[in-house]
Amino acid sequence: MAIRNIVLEGDPILSKKCRVIENFDERLAQLIDDMIETMRLNNGVGLAAPQVGMLKRVVVVQVDRDEPAIELVNPEIIEAEGTQEEAEGCLSCPGEYGITKRPMRVKVKALDRLGKEHIYEGEALLARAFCHEIDHLDGILFKSHVVQMLDVSDLKSS
Fold this sequence. Notes:
Elements: H1 26-41, E1 46-48, E2 58-61, E3 70-81, E4 84-89, E5 97-102, E6 105-111, E7 117-123, H2 125-136, E8 146-150, H3 152-157
Antiparallel strand pairs: 1-2, 2-3, 3-6, 4-5, 5-8, 6-7
């Protein structure tokens, strides 16, 4: 495993649509392992492949460090309901946070590193993380969902 550099806002790769994964091989497994390690080292709850410079439809999410990371290859949101407005940030936009409007619950269909299909259901933070990371695969940053940008001091007082 290796730590990968996180691409920062302003890099054109973050605004591009990612390619569908067709080869489920050792290179994909290595990318997923590297993304999980990079996400954990940077205290993130999710990371998308374009954030490490790869235009591939791959996402990892881990909102609870006591649970294994969720690997999403070629993910798509198949159901969404409710709404939530919560603080959100992004490893590609360090130090910037905003209140975003996202679904309260989502159902996501995705493949794992071996090409096996899974359905995941997420609520609250997990739903937000799924939406945030899947948006990256279509070149969308969280700021497009922000209803109010926050000052870092706002987060420390709450």
